[in-house]
């Protein structure tokens, strides 16, 4: 029970630290290369056969004397997968006398930064913990609870079993 409380305290600390980091790193949502019926206006261009007549920009058409259509940029949602190595290689370079879990704690912090960023951008986030095999796979989902679960899973990762890479 004490270990779980310490784990939750660690997650909270990581979450608070990463909130500050992410607020300075995350500039905003992503622009898609795909054009379509999105929400963000991209440009006005001359009408071409096959264009949806509902997209005609009547003000520009009246000024130019020929039909022009509005083009919008689609907003896309990203899916981010966190891949965390929990193999014996995480012990390599560990300072003698220190826990090899220090590297795992850093991996959890990195996962938290990416998780909070994904959360703020309304993106989906998933996790794969691996050694010489897949230890855990959590499919990508949205939500704060899911992002914090991913951080908890990294912090509580198996005891560095598996082959060194």
Give a verbal description of the structure.
The structure is a single chain. By secondary structure, this protein is of the alpha+beta class. It folds into two domains: 2-29 and 77-155, no CATH class; 35-73, no CATH class. It is built from four helices and six strands. It has helices spanning 2-25, 58-64, 101-120, 144-155, and strands spanning 35-36, 40-46, 68-73, 79-85, 124-130, 134-141. Strand 5 and strand 6 (134-141) form a beta hairpin. The longest helix has 24 residues, at 2-25.
Short description:
This protein has 165 residues and is an alpha+beta fold.
List keywords for this structure.
3-stranded mixed β-sheet; 2 domains; single chain; alpha+beta; 3-stranded antiparallel β-sheet; 22% strand; 165 residues
Helix-strand layout with pairing:
Blueprint: H1 2-25, E1 35-36, E2 40-46, H2 58-64, E3 68-73, E4 79-85, H3 101-120, E5 124-130, E6 134-141, H4 144-155
Parallel strand pairs: 4-5
Antiparallel strand pairs: 1-3, 2-3, 5-6
Helix pairs in contact: 1-3, 1-4, 3-4
How many strands appear in the DSSP assignment? 6
Lateral arrangement of strands in the main beta sheet: 1-3-2
Taken as a percent bin, the fraction of beta residues is 15-25%
Oligomeric grouping of the chains:
single chain
| Shape, per Cα inertia axes | elongated
Provide the gyration radius in Å: 23 Å
Mean pLDDT: 76
State the secondary-structure class. alpha+beta
H/E element order: HEEHEEHEEH
End-to-end distance: 33 Å
**Count of separate structural domains:** 2
Total helix count? 4
Give the % helix: 25-40%
Described by strand count, sense and barrel closure, the largest sheet is: 3 strands, antiparallel
Which spans of ≥5 residues are poorly predicted at pLDDT below 50?
Answer: 22-28
């Amino acid at each position: 029970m004490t270990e779980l409380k310490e784990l939750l305290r660690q997650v909270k600390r990581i979450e608070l630290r990463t909130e500050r980091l992410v607020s300075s790193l995350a500039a905003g949502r992503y622009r898609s290369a795909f054009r379509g019926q999105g929400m963000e206006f991209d440009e006005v261009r001359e009408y071409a056969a096959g264009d949806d007549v509902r997209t005609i920009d009547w003000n520009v058409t009246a000024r130019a004397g020929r039909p022009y259509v509005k083009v919008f940029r689609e907003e896309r949602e990203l899916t981010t997968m966190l891949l965390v190595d929990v193999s014996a290689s995480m012990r390599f370079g560990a300072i003698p006398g220190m826990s090899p879990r220090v590297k795992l704690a850093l991996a959890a912090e990195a996962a938290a930064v990416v998780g909070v960023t994904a959360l703020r951008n309304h993106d989906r986030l998933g996790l794969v913990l691996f050694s010489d095999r897949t230890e855990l796979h959590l499919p990508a989902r949205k939500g704060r609870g899911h992002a914090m679960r991913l951080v908890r899973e990294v912090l509580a990762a198996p005891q560095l079993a598996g082959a060194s890479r």
